[in-house]
Amino acid sequence: MSNEHGLHARPAARLVAVVNAFDATVSLTDLDTGRGPVDAGSLSMVATLNAQQGHRLQVGAAGPQAAEVLAAISDLAAENFGDTPAEPTATAGGSGLDVAIGPAIVVDAEVDLSGYRPGDDEPGRLDKAVSTAAGELEQLRDRSDDHGGIFDAQLAMLRDRKPRGEIEAAIAGGTPAAAAWKQTYDRLARTFEGLDDAYQRERAQDVRSVRDRVLRILTGDVTAEATDGILVVPELDAATAATVDAARIAGIAVRAAGTTGHGVIVARSRGIPLITGIGGVDVPAGAVVAFDARTGSFELAPDEATVRATITERQAEREQAAAQADQPATTLDGRTIDVLVNVGAVRDAADARGADGSGLVRTEVLFGDRRTAPTVAEQVERFRAVADALRGKPITIRTWDIGGDKPLPFLPQDHEANPFLGERGLRVFRRRPQLLRDQLEAIRQIAAETPVHVMFPMVTTADEVEWALDELGSRPDGLEVGIMVEVPAAALRVETLAVGLDFVSIGTNDLTQYTTAADRTNSAVAALADGLDPAVLRLIDRVVRKAGVRVAVCGDLASDPQSAVLLAALGVQELSAVGPQIPLVKALLRQTDLTKVPDVLNARDAAEVRQLVRR
Ligand code: PEP
Ligand code: MG
To answer: Looking at the predicted structure, is the pLDDT value of residue 8 above 50?
Structure first.
């Protein structure tokens, strides 16, 4: 099993579809966990078997077409279950505006079943509702360019025979169809929520989406389709995000916090204004609401003229920033901050407007589509393509950063109880350095052609730096060497670690999760993992004062213009952001006198930091 996140909902859905196309009974056992055998024709059974990347799966088949189904499964496995590697996505702002106004279209957390009256033919009624839901999902799939797999997975969840059997039994025992459907799908969602893998846990959203689609059909609830305005949802599932009509829906306000769910990613990629984490605020249906994701505000009965003015202003700001993207980001007090682009695909470099180079090439993402390790020559070629796309400006290549939430198909890792605190980044290669050695060879070769910086992720100790420099060996002229500061221990002794280096680059995503002890992939603690927490800013301030070498920031904080200004005011010299945000980051820097940015290090919390900066 080489798929990222293992046999999760989508590859599982493909497997189930293949199994059900044959006249055979197929079972699946995870040999590494001993779980199973489970019915391979049931999505809920397969997905919740929770087979992880690197696990060995045993398939058994019986029945008239046993041999055929085994051959088909073997073909599917050879194609990696049709799984494509996760595409890097913009995490800050997307391409749309971050402000919206309109009447609230409130989708309740629970579909109201109180008015549901059971009829004479409950099984028939459910059948009809399920086939209507299937028709809707098929339409969504066929209209979707990029997210068809999500709807296929939801279709498989909808048609899954295991829960369906339970529901039919409950109906036969006198439970109304709606209640039976709800009970069973609630339980299935809870099973997904209980899985180890954060990505798998988030698939509970898909189960709830399927549950509610059928319940809405059964109860005739059409809330979500009725009007134009701002969609207020408890959580954002991918189907909603991919299909809301952007001409009607001015924006989406999500009660749950968290930015890693599929729905959030899809909405951002569509440029739909989006705010997350508005919480339990009481929003009457139809009330005019407005939000500004930039300031984090969500308002009931806002002053409409003010919001409209903000929208016009933001549009003008984007256009103007884009027109000046190529000019340097020189602040009013005369400091020039380099603003670079984060690259996970050559396209990110090619599309970036105004980038002064790349401050982070995520190599594990750049080669994330590979099932086997790229050769030195292949790596050189792709690095060259990134450098060419940036017209020979410096590129900062980060060595393989795997572990945590980022597995690499060609480097299987042992199961760890706490992967974010385990063998991640540089740590992975202490025991088996060959992959790193090949990469460093590629980096030395490309550095002979074009300006290159190399940096090592997840550094904690001086020993690790010494070891990495030994592995790098002699450097060609011009190859600058640095480390990432993303572990609090590294920030607290950066002066020891940076001896002999050219730069350090602060990875605020990880520095934030480790400082606040809040898993960056867990939406339940997303509010804690705030990069503007003064505790994180104090560490950044310390790094700037003590490092003795150039200090860059390449975490997502640098993609938010106001945070970027704050970082520059703390003394950070270089910022690396997601491409679409670069013009805005540069524009705000140009309008700022950094000597006048308030001191925020003693603020009570991130909210107060935001208040101070806004002022
Ligand atoms: C970071 O941690 O801030 C960073 C830039 O690295 P990644 O997000 O790839 O872990
Ligand atoms: Mg990191």
So the answer is: yes
